[in-house]
Amino acid sequence: MSNIILYEQPLNERIRAFLRLEHLFSQITHFQDCGSVFDSHASVSALIEILTILDRTDIRSEALKEIDRHVAGLSRLLDAPGVDRECLDKTLRQLTGQSQKLQQLPSKLGSEIRDNDLLNSVRQRTNITGGTCGFDIPAYHFWLNQSTRTKADSLSHWLSEINPLHKGIALLLSLTRNSGDFEVQTAELGFFQRSLDTQNPCQLLRIALNADSEAYPEVSGNKHRINVRFLNYTEGGRPKQINHPLEFEISCCTI
User: Fold this and answer.
1) How far, in Å, are 113, 117, 129, 246 from residue 160 at the CA level?
2) pTM over cut 0.70
3) What is the pLDDT of residues 114-173, one digit of tens each?
4) DSSP 193
5) 130 in the Ramachandran plot: left (φ > 0), alpha (ψ -120 to 50) or beta?
6) Architecture of domain 181-253 in CATH?
7) CATH 1.10.3900.10-classified regions of the chain
């Protein structure tokens, strides 16, 4: 799989928000223990972006709704023939446990971040080009030059309130991704179209493409159908749809 690029396209706003948060949490995790000034700044920048999403959307409520939907759907399978009862029970326990942890969180998440003067100073200057230079926020410059352990501890403390949300979203996205199997398809002249089952709507579209193909997918769609155009990658000029057949793998995740 090292030569495969995986593309994901959310087909509803809830999954879209979850994927964005997953991306930002992954950025923090990647840079948190690296230690350099720029690594630590990348973690803080991601943390501030997470707070912006939390300000705009009640993600806690959205995650709870999604968990409830999964629990209801999976519970109906308990007596179905051929079901791995042990695996299903484990999944239901995980979902129930995450639901309980999310319910214990305050409705307004991120108070630990919002009440921090240092992070507020950084947040207020993120819209200014180059606004977080050392001369702009000397206190932030001081923090960025502390030891790796000190900065990692600070980030862990700031993240402590929203960690249950991180784990809940990780579980939900894992279940969603594992609900669909990949199948090989061919895009004739670089175009692929598929009708979707509106009674069992696709939540997430996943496309696996060989990195050597020198093309990437551009997806558009709704609950009725999806359209995929494969475009030639170019660093300059307008990308064009390829004009030859292209084999790829696709998965429609519908849980």
Assistant:
1) 10, 17, 30, 46
2) yes
3) 889 999 999 999 889 999 998 999 999 999 999 999 999 999 999 998 999 999 999 999
4) E
5) left
6) Sandwich (2.60)
7) 13-175
- What Rg value do the Cα atoms of the chain yield, rounded? 21
Please, where in the chain does CATH 2.60.440.10 lie? Answer: 181-253
Long-range contacts of 153-160 (CB under 8 A, 24+ apart): 155/28, 155/32, 155/43, 155/44, 155/47, 156/32, 157/112, 158/47, 158/112, 158/113, 158/116, 158/119, 159/28, 159/47, 160/112
- Per DSSP, the three-state class of 34 is coil
pLDDT tens-digit series, residues 14-47: 999 999 999 999 999 999 888 899 999 999 999 9
Residues linked to residue 10 through DSSP beta bridges, in sequence order: 204
Which tens digit of pLDDT belongs to each residue from 219-242?
Answer: 998 888 999 999 998 887 889 999
* Architecture (CATH level 2) of domain 13-175: Orthogonal Bundle (1.10)
